[in-house]
Amino acid sequence: MVSGLHRPTQLVIDRQAIKANIQQELKTLPQATALWAVVKANGYGHGMVEVATTAKHAGATGFCVAILDEALGLRQAGFTEPILVLGITSPAYAKLAAAAHISLSVGSQDWLAAALPVLQAGQLTASLAIHFAVDSGMGRIGFRDAPALQQADTFLRQHAEFNLEGLFTHFATADEQDTTYFKQQVASFQQMRQALAVEPRYVHVSNSATSLWHAACNGNMIRFGVALYGLNPSGAALQPPYPLQPALSFESELVFVKQIQAGAAVSYGATYHAKQTEWVGTLPVGYADGWQRRLQGFHVLVAGQYCEIIGRICMDQLMIRLPKQLPVGTKATLVGENGGQTISLQDVAAYAQTIHYEIACNLTERVPRIYLPEKA
Ligand SMILES: *Cc1c(COP(=O)(O)O)cnc(C)c1O
């Protein structure tokens, strides 16, 4: 996709905030617990390679991604740390992963059986590192009972093409006040892990929420995702043990300003009519940038004041009601701080009835990312 370098709309990513969030988390962890930074989906929209670079400087010693291509992207960018693909990769790519020293998540013996001939064809330079996924209640991927895990473990140990590097599970409710289901998952995982002949190097269960609110079950590695971006995994439900610093701001500026008379309509469908004489500003941001149409009626900040998004959000532009006449070129903040007021990704998500993860991931490549430096 073309990046809009000649348009005054940009995401500003504060590397120091990312660094500080990771360093804060590391302070709470025992020395022996590794922090792997989760940088899937283009680093939750923040930029995969840039986030990985800062995360490494902050003390992350590995990375997690969702798909093999993201892992290959990190290798291409020069990262030599361990990388785990959290989703299921086709066994057809087992050899590609092994050659690039990329670790794969596996949730069935069938997968190992299908990958074996792929690994056995021709020269194999390195064995394939496997993390067994245990489905302790998330219901997504992984072994669901101890005998199945045990059989796969036995199969893996009979074939030097594989090496077992990790065992993990994922919690469905770690970000909730009620810990009943969480505790059931912990118990299920503790029982399942007994099935392995030998514990692998990494046993890991914690996403951000688990590590923030249930650190006691961390194991020896955490998969630290959304919190490194300064976002509260629970939305606003639970308070993190230390303040998180949001890394992302979304900025634009007024490109057109006009006064309209009472009754005049704005945008597609003519759904908005001015109640009186009003000043209206146009911003070069739209749903093609990830600012969904459902954000009509929400606000942006201009000159420290909340300005309503009026009328339908277009593909590339949206209109706001201004408190007064303001010059073209005046800064507008869609996410972040402006004149002492702020709009958080959580505010946006709450209005759009979704989670901030989704808002951040939806910000498209058309919006350039600009990076503020981290402190040494
Ligand atoms: C995405 C993901 C994470 C990171 O979750 P956050 O809530 O962003 O910390 C950890 N583990 C798995 C399996 C994931 O898919």
Automatic annotation (TrEMBL):
Gene3D superfamilies named among the record's database cross-references: Alanine racemase (3.20.20.10), Lyase, Ornithine Decarboxylase, Chain A, domain 1 (2.40.37.10)
Coiled coil: none
Organism whose genome encodes this protein: Loigolactobacillus binensis
Residues engaged in binding substrate: 140, 315
Name of one Pfam family that matches: Ala_racemase_C
Designated name of the protein: Alanine racemase
InterPro entries: Ala_racemase, Ala_racemase/Decarboxylase_C, Ala_racemase_C, Ala_racemase_N, Ala_racemase_pyridoxalP-BS, PLP-binding_barrel
GO molecular function: alanine racemase activity
Cofactor(s) the record lists: pyridoxal 5'-phosphate
Pathway: Amino-acid biosynthesis; D-alanine biosynthesis; D-alanine from L-alanine: step 1/1
Residue ranges of domain Alanine racemase C-terminal in the record: 247-372
Main EC class the enzyme belongs to: isomerase
Residue numbers annotated as active site: 40, 268
EC number: 5.1.1.1
Domain of life: Bacteria
